[in-house]
Design goal:
Largest sheet: 3 strands, antiparallel
Structural class: alpha+beta
Order of helices and strands: HEEHE
Helix content: 25-40%
CATH architecture: 2-Layer Sandwich
Length: 91
């Protein structure tokens, strides 16, 4: 059964699944801080777009994080594409 929109928990679960890859970006490049990521989730559960915002936008760390987030998969849902902003804290 598909839902109309994804819940906060469903979004968090999908992002948690790529959290290790995101943190690997920070560790490899020895960077810390918050990476804001804007995604548009398609009703199929795939991603239409991924954009890194803030101080890591356009940097190698930001590019690495964007690549990791592109691997996230969400449950299918009914309706239009869903924009979501999500913060990752890098340590």
């Amino acid at each position: 059964m598909t839902t109309t929109l994804l819940t906060r928990q469903q979004v968090g679960d999908a992002m948690d699944a790529v959290q290790g890859q995101v943190h690997a970006c920070a560790q490899r490049m020895q960077k810390a801080g918050t990476v804001g990521v804007s995604v548009i989730i398609l009703p199929t559960g795939g991603l239409k777009s991924v954009q890194v915002r803030g101080m890591f936008a356009g940097t190698p760390v930001g590019d690495c994080v964007a690549d990791a987030v592109r691997r996230a998969r969400f449950p299918p849902f009914a309706g239009s594409a869903m924009p979501v902003n999500y913060p990752f804290v890098l340590r």
